[in-house]
Amino acid sequence: MMEAKPKRRIVTENGDTGEDLVLATLIGNGDDVGPLVRHAFEMGRPEPLVHQLKNVARKKEAEIEDLCKTHYEEFIVAVDELRGVLVDAEELKSDLASDNFRLQEVGSALLVKLEELLESYAIKKNVTEAIKMSKICVQALELCVKCNSYISEGQFYHALKTMDLIERSYLKLIPLKVLKLVIERRIPVIKTHIEKKVCSQFNEWLVHIRSSSKNIGQTAIGLTASARQREEEMLERQRRAEEQNTGGLGESAYTLDVEDSEQDSVLKFDLTPLYRAYHIHTILGVPERFRDYYYENRLLQLQSDLQISYTQPFVESYQTFLAQVAGYFIVEDRVIRTAGDFLLADQVETMWETAISKIVAILENQFARMDSPTHLLLVKDYVTLLGTTLRQYGYEVGPVLDALDKSRDKYHELLLEECRKQIVTAITEDTYQQMVIKKEADYENNVLSFNLQTSDIMPAFTYIAPFSSMVPDVCRIIRSYIKGSVDYLSYGVNTNFFSVLRKYLDKILIDVLNEVILETISNNSIGVSQAMQIAANISFLEKASDYFLRHAAQLCGIPSRSVERPQASLAAKVVLKTSRDAAYLALLNVVNTKLDEFMKLTENVNWTTEEMPQGPHEYINEVVIYLETVMSTAQQILPMDALYKVGVGAIEHISNSIVSTFLSDSIKRFNANAVSAINHDLRVIENFADERYHSSGLNEIYKEGSFRSYLVEARQLINLLSSSQPENFMNPVIRERNYNTLDYKKVATICEKFKDSADGIFGSLANRNTKLTAKKKSMDMLKKRLKEFN
Predict the structure, then answer these.
(1) CB 624 within 8 A of CB 707
(2) What positions does the domain Exocyst complex subunit EXOC6/Sec15 C-terminal occupy (predicted)?
(3) Contact by Cβ (8 Å): 654, 593
(4) Are 171 and 137 in contact (CB under 8 A)?
(5) Torsional sign, CA 703, 708, 712, 715
(6) Which residue in 123, 198, 572, 590 has the fewest CB atoms around it within 10 Å?
(7) Mapping DSSP to helix (H, G, I), strand (E, B) and coil, where does residue 670 land?
């Protein structure tokens, strides 16, 4: 060890530099010397580096040599051991060679067997694969046979599912290209065949469902009509129960019968062919094409259904036409509700709009052609049933109801004209004699039914009604008009149509009934009995107008109390009252004309007689007899107010006739004897007026307006002409008390004619120089003062 150190120092001394030490350190540490080499070559001075490397190599060799010298003994031992190992390895190699030989001898036979085994395995694999491929082909062929069987049996859905199974699970696995190619070519052909067959079956269903639509629609509309009838019957029972309760008949309960109508609401028709066709087309991947095909064909069917035949009257074909449309859209509703997304709501809406516009056009055209209210009502009723039926399925039927509402006036015009003819017939054929009722049933039908009774007590039969047969006949006509109007207005646009009905009720009463009555009244050939009976009839028709209003309210479902108020009465009631007054005037005109024929004062009275009259003129007895007949008949027929008007009118006319006769130009002069005779006549009339006024019971009603009071002008005139001091007329107090109804001008004219002397030239000459009496002086004074006053 001590010898080694001098040697290292010698090396250093022999030329080691600092760079050599750095390089030796890098190599000793295992660092990369590449950068130093690269740098040396880049600098163009590799020689120093090579020299340094050589120095490092020499140094390392010296170190190895020192190390070997230090451990040489150990190295010799290791070499000996290595030689021993080589000997053992040779022995082991000899043993391995011997074992390998024996193994080769034994393994040769096994290798032959292994090769045979592997060959067997290969054959088995091929056979298994062949079996598997054969099974696939057999299964595919079995499915093809099954598919053909399904097609022949018409089970197209199963056939398509089988083909789908073949395509998805077998077609790619079929090893035989020929078989695979055949199947691939036949599948599209089979699908096309199935599609054609399904479309053919669907077309047959289209024909069938169209032919069934009429029955479907008629059944549905019939169910709606039955439901409507049940509802009307229920409302009628309810109305009767309310009337009984109102009439004070005690507790009267009613129940609402509710029937199970679920079965009625189910219409049975088969949509299976449609579902099958749509499902198959969906499986075929062409659902849109089938949807379009269905929509186009159904739209063509609808357009055909909406065509009407003009060779057949519409009133004979409207039910078939409307039922066909109803059945069509009931089917469409079922389709859209049960077939999923097959039919779109917009498509159904388009079809409905097409149908509704066509129906409205047809109805408006046909309504314009109709001239019978019955036909129009029949069509209207069926149309409303159609609307109610289809509204249950969600269809908007407003335009159809609007079309009905537009024809409302047309219907009522036809109905009004029909009723006009009936009313004219009833009035013209009336005998104007009081109606004789012999049975209670006739009394109920002709009197109680229209609230025409004058007493709540059932009369004894035979009963003589105060009206003629025209009144119940007209009431029945008006009642039928109300029923016809309600039938048309019901189930229309306006649910509360009472105001509309009221307008039409006023129209028939005013424009028809009242006009016919006025035409009858204006007829110059009308007699006293006729005029009196007409006036009585109008009074009862006026009373019946309240019944008409209540009846209309009941049919409209309006509470009776709402129309029983005075302000709720019909305008026709006022018009009929005016016509009744016109009838009274016509009656009075006839009576007055007859009175004028009886009286004829200018002919029946000697206005310048020299004899004092001993009593009334003969004509006055005829007047009284006539008045007695008129008043007796009027008391039996007319109400008390009308009786009073007739009596007042006749009495007042007599008074006016007396006064007007004194004023007449045909009377040039008269004397006190003529005044006395008229006074006798007037007293007879006054006595008759008082007797009739009290015997008729009018004195209890009109206490301040007796018949005698309407003779006051004639009485005051006669009293003035008979007065010993006629000049008192000019005294305001006396005139107000005794002569308040006399006119100055009339009195002046009449007094100028008053000559208290006999009618003869000799009488005039004989009395010319006679002393004027006090009465004459008073009369002359009155004449003078009246002239001054005028």
Answers:
(1) no
(2) 401-753
(3) no
(4) no
(5) negative
(6) 123
(7) strand
